[in-house]
Amino acid sequence: MPANLTAQYLKAEEQYRRAQSPDEQLHCLQLMLRELPKHKGTDKLQAELKQKISKLKKELAAPGKAGKRSSGVRLPRQGAGSVLLLGGVNSGKSQLLVTLTQARPEVAPYPFSTREPFPGMMPWEDVMVQLVDTPPVTMDYMESYMQGLIRSADLVLLLVDLGSDDGVEQCQDVLDKLATTKTRLARQSSLDENDIGLSYTKTFLVPNKVDLPEAPERLELLRELCPLEFPEFVISAQQGTQLEPLRDAIYQSLDVVRVYSKLPHQKEPDYDRPFTVRRGDSLLEVAQQIHKDYVQNFKFARVWGSQVHDGTIVKGDYLVNDRDVVELHQ
Ligand SMILES: Nc1nc2c(ncn2[C@@H]2O[C@H](COP(=O)(O)OP(=O)(O)O)[C@@H](O)[C@H]2O)c(=O)[nH]1
Ligand SMILES: [Mg+2]
Q1: Which residues pair with 200 in a beta bridge?
Q2: In 3D, which of 170, 200, 174 has the Cα closest to residue 187?
Q3: CA of 136 to the centre of ligand 2 (A)
Q4: Are both 239 and 271 inside the same structural domain?
Q5: Residue with the nearest Cα to atom 6 of ligand 1?
Q6: Do residues 109 and 239 both lie within one domain?
Q7: Which residue, 231, 254, 277, sits at the end of a domain?
Q8: 94 and 211, same structural domain?
Q9: Residues near ligand 1 (Cβ within 6 A)
Q10: What is the pLDDT of residue 247?
Q11: Farthest-apart Cα atoms in the chain, separation
């Protein structure tokens, strides 16, 4: 990507990476084109954006074709972020969801017991993170909606079955299968430098069933066969081994901050219900979450927090910090 892309451009680009319907994609591409700094260094990107926009417009105009690329399965995002559990058969995706959330998908030692994405909420301190169980991906089969889910996820946990001799190969199959598509896994989420249609989603490698006897040898094999660059968390989903470091890393990877809102006449904010926004987001993003009217009629806010004096008066562009208390005035 050319240097000097603005924050607005990068935001639009991220929305595009996550867009799940052609309508949404078109909207994001138009935004990207508008926000793209126009100079020699961005000529190629400008051309690519224009080409993609006209292609999408044509697709959308063709009768019966609209929505063709949307998968049909959409999960409403909930909580501070959305994390997708991905892996081969019996890798323990459903078991991990059961252990970390109140959701109760079927856990069974036979393949394809999970057919549809199954969400649950994982508590972390005072926030909730959405975890989504999915059907297994194999070399022969991947549900059509999986690519959309992977692209729109904040993080993917790639589970590996250390309880079976096939586990390592199954993990490699997932990666090989995705390599045939434009949806890939990587250390960081991004769009490809040379092809903005090619998306990477941030991934942790999660070898599971470390409680079983042959797990250590299989783990060695995994590291030899796929020297993957993902951060690794070795766990037992069933026994609950090493889940705390994983839970913490999941939350940290979302890179969000918590903000508590209070009304002017209240002494205390609502500490039970923090709003979460991206680190580096401004107060206006918080206002947007609380109520759309707040953004339109926003005058100023008072903030209590670690980086400001109590009750400091700020404008909408104030960058919120973790655990700030804000009082919006309109
Ligand atoms: N020993 C052991 N078995 C596990 C563990 N996690 C899952 N299992 C078992 O592995 C099988 C498949 O688990 P499941 O969560 O249904 O796998 P999925 O196909 O990836 O959803 C089930 O019989 C689970 O009880 C674990 O950490 N240790
Ligand atoms: Mg399952």
Answers
A1: 184, 190
A2: 200
A3: 7
A4: no
A5: 92
A6: yes
A7: 254
A8: yes
A9: 87, 89-95, 107-109, 113-114, 136, 163, 208-209, 211-212, 236-239
A10: 98
A11: 63
Indicate the pTM of the whole model: 0.89
Distance 161 CA to ligand 2 centre (A): 12
Is residue 2 domain-resident? Answer: no
Q: How far is the CA of 107 from the centre of ligand 1 (A)?
A: 7
Do 110 and 177 fall within a single domain?
A: yes
| Gap between the Cα atoms of 158 and 231, Å rounded | 11
In a domain, 17, yes or no: yes
Average pLDDT per consecutive 10 residues, the chain (330 residues; last block may be shorter): 77 89 92 92 92 93 60 77 96 97 85 80 96 95 92 97 96 95 94 90 97 96 83 97 98 97 91 92 91 85 95 95 94
Same domain, 247 and 196: yes
CA of 146 to the centre of ligand 1 (A): 21
Residue nearest to atom 8 of ligand 1 (CA): 92
Protein residues within 5 Å, CB atom, of ion ligand 2: 94, 114
Secondary structure class of 22 (helix, strand, coil) = helix
Q: Per the structure block, which two tokens stand in for 64? A: 């019966």
Residue 68 counted as domain residue: no
| Domain match, 22 and 86 both | no
Q: Which residue range is the domain that position 13 belongs to? A: 7-61
Report the C-alpha gap between 61 and 40 in whole angstroms.
32
Q: E strands within 146-295?
A: 155-161, 183-186, 190-191, 199-208, 256-261, 275-278
**Is the same domain home to 250 and 262?**
no
Cα 158–Cα 207–Cα 106 angle in degrees, nearest 5: 70
322, 202: one domain: no
